[in-house]
Each structure stands twice: as structure tokens, then as C-alpha cells.
Amino acid sequence: MAAVWSDALSFGLVAMPVQLVTATESHTIRFNQLQRGTSDRVRNKRVNERTGDEVPFEEIVKAYDTGEDYVVVEPEELEELAPGRSKALEITPIC
After folding, report:
1. β strands within 31-91, DSSP E
2. Largest separation between any pair of C-alpha atoms in the chain
3. Model-level pTM?
4. How far is residue 7's CA from residue 18's CA, in Å, rounded to a whole number?
5. Which pLDDT does position 47 carry in this prediction?
6. Burial classification of residue 72, based on how many CB atoms lie within 10 Å of its CB (0-12 exposed, 13-18 middle, 19 or more buried)
């Protein structure tokens, strides 16, 4: 299993190597979409429903439909709402 992150923890003169590895492995089989009878790949395009123009990925936002209008939700707002996520690792010694 490949390490996602590796470093060392230092306690005074003692350094202990540490690796962070994924807890699960993906066993999903991924398929390509082909047109029947050919070997031509089929791609999905993001298009504007009203104009039919293709929309670049960086111009796409997430929004909630209220029934009358849409409320746009930015990625930063979703990160603030995510429960229990932290970039800190707390180590508690057991005595």
C-alpha cells in the first residue's frame, strides 16, 4: 500500500518515522463508454440547457433549487459546514 504522507515525529533526541496510508482500497472496475458496433469512445459534455453552448468546468457552481430560484453554494461554504474535519493530528499518551 502506498503512503499518502510520510514524515517523522521528534521527541527530544528520539525521532520516529511515521507514514499515513489509506484505510481502504478501491476495487471498483472502471468502464469506458463506446458507441455500439464501433470502438469510438463517447464523452460527456457539460452544456448550458438554454444556449446549448459547452461550459468550462471552472465556470460550474453548485446550487440548491428552492423551487422559485437557486441558491449558489461556494466550495468554501461547504468546507466550513463539514463536521469533524481537521488538518491537525492529536496524539494522547496513555499512562
Report:
1. 62-65, 70-73
2. 68
3. 0.42
4. 5
5. 92
6. exposed
